[in-house]
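U., I forgot to send this yesterday:
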Amino acid sequence: MAIAWPIFQKKPTSKILWLDLGDLGDLVNPAGPHEQWQDHGLGLLRTILHQNGVLTDLFSTRQCTTWDQVKKRLQGYDMLIMNVRSYTFPVAYRSAKLFKEVNPRGLVLAGGMHATVAPDEMLAVPEFDRIVQGPGENTILELVKDPAAFQRLTLGVGAKSMAEWPMLDRTLWPKPASWRLSRKFHWPLEPECGWGPPPVVTLITSRVCPWQCVFCNENSYIPNMGRRPVDMVIDELNYLDEKYGIGSVVIHDSMFFQNPSWLEEWLEKYPRKARKRWPYWAAGRADTVRQWPDLFEALIKETNWNTVSIGFESGSDRVLKILNKECTEEDNYFAIDLLTRIGDEMEAQGKKPPVFWSNIMLGIPGETHEDAFKTMRMVKYTKRILPSISFYAPYPGSALGYQLIAEGKSRMSKENYHRFPDDEKVVGVDYRFYRELLAGRYDDEVNRGLAEVRQQRRNYLDALAKA
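Result:
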């Protein structure tokens, strides 16, 4: 059992507290690597505040192991700021109440994705004094300086291009809160998660995926904006490597493999101008891989894109249409076969082959048993894959989420917007079947038509991830 450091007794140095949100203990003794990721929204907005002379204190619910610790750490502040996502809404909701208990005259400012996609839920919490929808980089400074000048629900103003953003001051992110975790964290960079060697740099080159999948709420959160220039991305990586040393990179874009002209510039400049050709994780789509296969292959081979994240979601055309994925089974298998061929060639040359980090979704309303068998058959067919399997979650802001919420079929609420992998999230879904499927009970059906080399039994329950 990890012991938290005595960080909770620090005296306030500012009257403004920024609270990083997450499950208790995730920066003390985390269940997995992804619970340790840092919040880029917090990093950006806090950097803007500090560069303009508005200093804030910081701590994280993830640095605490009890709510009593959170309550003590909230004492003595006039203002609390939080970036609220749907899956952190229960933590934000409880933290705001505790803040008001210990600072009755204090003010709570909340923004983020949940404030945008579910404003009614935010407005129903009286402890949220000011709520900002949408991006906040051109709003945060004036809001913190004079909150009385803003209505309770305010539409934030964002930049037209990510080129306008300052470089994040990563020392403004929370630190790990145990000695054991601190040894592996590499703060202010981030820890290894299985995709590449530490220290890890997470960064964003683009905001908003332009597709309209019905399970995703990103398009309802912020408008599209200009992509970060290639030179700025490389300059930041070079700076961070010189200062801290980089082992690998995670490009957190929802969709990295878009805008061919940007990708072609990245292909030309990254191998030549970066201090090292660091391996990186980045996301694509099966249909864009099929649309630009030569560009995809060149990026894999020449820029060290060695972990390719593709949300295949399903191996069934029926379900892909339900999800409005705009990809087909054929697209999925094209991308799988292409990366398999590239990987085989690289392996034959003594090089490390690229792998898929693949998001797979089960428990989708309307999915049949045969649809689910086809999905798991696709997973087994894929030669090199790190599957991230989740049960569909009806988040507000997504078209399907709104529909299921309106029909009373969502089991999610402000008390349980968490992301535990085995949650039963939708009324009427046979979760027992899916657990048995992942445990291997239906392997005969799944293996039908697969080459024997792909039929090895695996308990995919271990691959269940947060949704």
